[in-house]
Amino acid sequence: MAGVRALGALSRITARRYVLSGKIVLNSFDLSFFLARTHVNYEVKEDVAVIRMNDPNSKVNTLSVRMQNEMIEVFDEVLANDAVQSAVLISSKPGCFIAGADINMIQACNTSEEVTKLSQEGQKMFERIEKSPKPIVAAINGSCLGGGLEFAIACQYRVATKSKKTVLGTPEVMLGLLPGAGGTQRLPKMVGIPGAFDMMLTGRNIKADKAKKMGLVHQLVDPLGPGLKSPEERTIEYLEEVAIQCARGIVHKKISLTKKKGMMQKVQDYVMGIAFVRQQIYKNVNGKVMKMSKGLYPAPLKIIESVKTGLEQGPDSGYLAEAQNFGKLAMTSESHALIGLYHGQVACKKNRFGVPERPVKNLAILGAGLMGAGIAQVTVDKGIHTVLKDTTVEGLSRGQQQVYKGLNDKIKKKAITSFERDSTLSSLTGQLDYSGFEKADMVIEAVFEDINIKHRVIKEVEAVIPPHCIFATNTSALPIKDIAAASMRPEKVIGMHYFSPVDKMQLLEIITTDKTSKDTTASAVAVGLKQGKVIIVVGDGPGFYTTRCLAPMLAEAVRVLQEGVNPKKLDALTTGFGFPVGAATLADEVGIDVAAHVAEDLGKAFGSRFGGGNVDVLKTMVERGFKGRKSGKGCYVYTPGLKSKDVNPDIDDLLEKFKLTPNPSVSSDSDVQYRLVSRFVNEAVMCLQEGILNGPVEGDIGAVFGLGFPPCLGGPFRFVDTFGADKLVEKMRRYEEVYGNHFTPCQLLLDHAKDSNKRFHK
Amino acid sequence: MKWGQPLSLTLIVFSTATRSLSTSVQLHAQVQTKSKKTLAKPGVKNIVLVEGVRTPFLLSGTTYADLMPHDLARAALQGLLHKTSLPKDAVDYIIYGTVIQEVKTSNVAREASLGAGFSDKIPSHTVTMACISSNVAMTTGVGLITAGQCDTIVAGGVEFMSDVPIRHSRKMRKTMLALNRAKTLGQRLSLIGSIRMAHLTPELPAVAEFSTAETMGHSADRLAAAFGVTRLEQDEFALRSHTLAKQAQDAGLLSDVISFKVPGRDTVAKDNGIRPSSMEQLAKLKPAFIKPHGTVTAANSSFLTDGASAVLIMSEEKALAMGYKPKAYLRPAYGTPKVLARAGLTMDDIDVFEFHEAFAGQIMANLKALDSDWFAQTYMGRKAKVGAPAMEKFNLWGGSLSLGHPFGATGCRLVTTVAHRLLKEGGQYGLVAACAAGGQGHAMVIEAYPQ
């Protein structure tokens, strides 16, 4: 069932990419408005008008006000031109048809009515396209997303290239919005109700051949190789030629616009024609959305509502519902949070440290464990020659197999071919010694988290690497300056904190010490960006930013367990707040031993403020072999091959031994949630206060993409803005009375509480 | 001289390999007259083509249907022996090219030469390089002569598309091999019991290239589109090929074809794929690979063909000593522009062109590429285009589109045809070029032997 996958996306929102483009708004005094058309132009080729889009100010086309106005103008001229019988709509940009609506256009609105009006204007424009007496063929090469897709499906016919860059989709849901220009009404008719829900609720990208199968496009065109022009240029030209043929074919009735329905299609249509069946689908999808989103995300529900209104009450009500719901959603805090994350992510995909002096072409990784192999996997397919070094053949083989499997899984998803896998793997060298390190531009160590081992490794490596080579250390808690103490060249030492599993988690936390040179940082960021990471660069200190925020929350989680809340309930409370993974499960995933280690280290560094639960709970668990998922037992018991998990029965008597009596005044479900979250948020704000963080944007991105802070809240800083620093402080004071300094709000948070004009995000 | 060097572009007639051409500059300087008298260089052994023959090329599934590849190769070898009266022990080495291998005769050169009555003391090996396999067989022979190891070489090629090795699925093969090792009845029964319907799906020989997963026809269609070759141009070219082939056949110019008594069937003496048609007929066909807007059709592609070819290559000295009248000098190298540069010739110096026509779209694209400054600058590192060959010198006796294209055997046909055309038309230099799957190609200059 389609709706099903949908919802996975919401819980995994951190793992998804936002595709809508955030284009810079045109200056209000942009004089070019009065001049000739700059975004849309057309050429008449015999009886076919070829309408070409090209935003001169951006790498991608967006449906900005300007683009829309010019499009309407051109469309009017094309309709008025008697020589023209049909039209082709095409982008002159390689790799982009239309990437979506201009988000800033929506953000510039102050009321839901204004946004509704925007939506209605879009609907009107596309209605004219749909009802055009002259057939319009959309010729799609590159991203065709959001408003771009809605435009394309309003056209009479669609031809798309099979280029890897050609993707179709409705990613609005990931910004807390819905397809607001007729998408919710046209898609169900085009790809069926289940298919439409799948697209709109997951926001996933659909590749050209899948789009053809779904009935989203009519015809495919192969991308071309070298010829008499550059491949990109000639491919667009070829697409245009084929689209022109199609346009003429439609006019001359050689191509029929009503496609023949297969048996399956007829059956499906018949079934969908039954009101009862449709009701069941709405109910079913709704139930799944609620289960996955815990009701924290309004957009999927509004999408279902808009589709339902259109199908049950007719198009007029449907389009109206779509426009009104679009307006409502645009004003929700969830949408603001998600759009904020989108912008933040775009910002964290740039290198603010400039271009490094020499690009990293040879990278060596020490330690072929889970992290080391993961780093190798995301590096080797980016054209960087990668050395993976371990100390034992067994360890190395395991790591090499992990990289192989990672690439092989991509073949199964048809993302790459087996040939590409093989040629990629030819850039990976597995070895046990330091041979070839004299050519390394960067070494990333991912050995065991023990300062003595790290010191030994840094000395060994520095004996063999060239002077320009950067030494990056992958640690989740050891201060970088302590590691760098063993280095002869601390300016070349930097921290690169990856998150597990490296190929799935988007965040990379880069840690600089006051000795790290700017070029070293620029180089580390450049490598991270190549690896496809979203990057935050933070200052050095125990736990840096991410681990430091997580530690107090986990300490609180342990206390909650000691107070008699069982792991399942604890998980329900945290996921109910919007965390994609519950606190108990998270501890199991991270590893109870790691958690114990971090809790103890950071406890020493920060003192009693990091207290809460008894560290001995974790230590005892480790002693008894409950190290989390990796050992098969932690808070839960993990049976291989089984997805469901039961609470570890042995943990009850263990917790019994450490039992604390809960104070009823701070132990309601809601209080438990805020106890967990407020400690996280307070620590994040403190990191900003202490200059560990460069700004609230990186703080939000780090928390959401690295730790799974609820995306619907947009990160700890946006949460403070939305929730109110004063209200948060009030809650913390109440908890402080019971538990002491664990809950003492930091100065910056207090400043914001005092002055409601103070906001982290403008 | 070098040979067998793979080139990095899909269209190989123009190579982009970065081999150093230290001598070419010097050679260039020597070009003063339009045509150099000879490409012979002092101290370098001249290698000559003494004779070339081929079996008739037949559409697969016709008269050859019940044979095996080595039968065709043997027929070509016997034809060569017959035509040259060469003593069977006078050959130093036999090399054959083939593409789709019959697993029973994987060294088809050996099976065919023994069957043709050559001495078992003569070593023979098989080479493969897609559609230029027999070109490689020839250049390997040229190399052996140049190196002084051999004086007399028989090179050839064979392809048999009437039967191809269709395998059991990997799963089934695995089960069958395990069955071999099974010791007890119980083990055998349990293995047999594990066979499912899915095991029975056969595996056809790859129609697609292994590394790109693209079929040749699909690739040719994209290539044609990339160079803006229209359907009309392709159909015209195909029609030209068939028309010229028919004329050549009727005029008895295809003298390399030997007649072959097929066991259990009639004697064949003529190619059977030559079908001059009309533009209207050709226009009716639907695209064969890219639908619905593709331009490559069954009629403007070469068809599946059975056939074999063989040539006798010798050092000039040896040929003269044995009393042969050589037909031409062989001067192999790679890629049209490169081969011309090495020889110190220009396109104008060439009198006879024989290019392999896998698809009309491919050959037209190649011609356009040769004629494009942009392509030469962007993809070949040249300052200017090489220029396209003059059509009045180009494939005048038909080509792979009309005569057929038994993959492994085409190269020898091209070389023999150039030699015969030089004799007939009276030119000095000929150029052979062919492309092959995997983005490889081959070119060779052939110089007329003074008559």
Please outline the helices and strands:
The complex is a heterodimer of chains A (762) and B (451).
Chain A: H1 2-11, E1 40-45, E2 48-53, H2 65-80, E3 86-91, E4 96-98, H3 103-107, H4 112-130, E5 136-140, E6 143-145, H5 147-154, E7 157-161, E8 167-169, H6 183-191, H7 193-202, E9 206-207, H8 208-214, E10 219-221, H9 231-251, H10 263-272, H11 275-293, H12 298-313, H13 315-330, H14 333-347, E11 362-366, H15 370-380, E12 385-389, H16 393-412, H17 418-425, E13 428-431, E14 442-445, H18 451-462, E15 470-473, H19 480-484, E16 493-498, E17 507-512, H20 518-530, E18 534-539, H21 546-562, H22 567-577, H23 583-590, H24 592-606, H25 615-623, E19 636-637, E20 646-647, H26 651-657, H27 669-689, H28 696-707, H29 716-723, H30 725-739, H31 747-754
Helix pairs in contact in A: 1-7, 1-11, 4-5, 4-13, 5-6, 6-7, 11-12, 12-13, 14-28, 15-16, 21-24, 21-27, 23-24, 24-25, 27-29, 27-30, 30-31
Chain B: H1 24-30, E1 47-54, E2 58-59, H2 69-84, E3 93-97, H3 108-115, E4 124-127, H4 133-146, E5 152-159, H5 170-181, H6 185-193, H7 216-226, H8 231-250, E6 260-261, E7 267-268, H9 279-284, E8 305-315, H10 316-321, E9 328-333, H11 336-343, E10 352-355, H12 360-370, H13 373-379, H14 400-403, H15 410-425, E11 429-436, E12 440-448
Parallel strand pairs in B: 3-4, 3-5, 10-11
Antiparallel strand pairs in B: 1-8, 1-9, 2-8, 5-8, 6-7, 9-12, 11-12
Helix pairs in contact in B: 2-3, 4-15, 5-6, 7-12
Question: What does this entry show, briefly?
Answer:
With 762 residues, chain A is an alpha/beta fold. Chain A is 50% helix and 11% strand. Helices cover 34% and strands 15% of the residues of chain B.
Give an overview of the whole structure.
Chain B: One of its GO terms (molecular function) is acetyl-CoA C-acyltransferase activity. Chain B: Keywords: Acetylation, Acyltransferase, Endoplasmic reticulum, Fatty acid metabolism, Lipid metabolism, Membrane, Mitochondrion, Mitochondrion inner membrane, Mitochondrion outer membrane, Signal, Transferase, Transit peptide. Chain B: It is found in: Endoplasmic reticulum; Mitochondrion inner membrane; Mitochondrion outer membrane. The complex is a heterodimer of chains A (762) and B (451). With 762 residues, chain A is an alpha/beta fold. Chain A is 50% helix and 11% strand. Chain A has 31 helices and 20 strands. Chain A is globular, with a radius of gyration of 28 Å. The N terminus of chain B is likely disordered. Chain B is an alpha+beta fold and 451 residues long. In chain B, strands 1, 2, 3, 4, 5, 8, 9, 10, 11 and 12 form a ten-stranded mixed β-sheet that branches. The chains are: A alpha/beta (762), B alpha+beta (451). Chains A and B meet through α9 of A and α7, α12 and α13 of B.
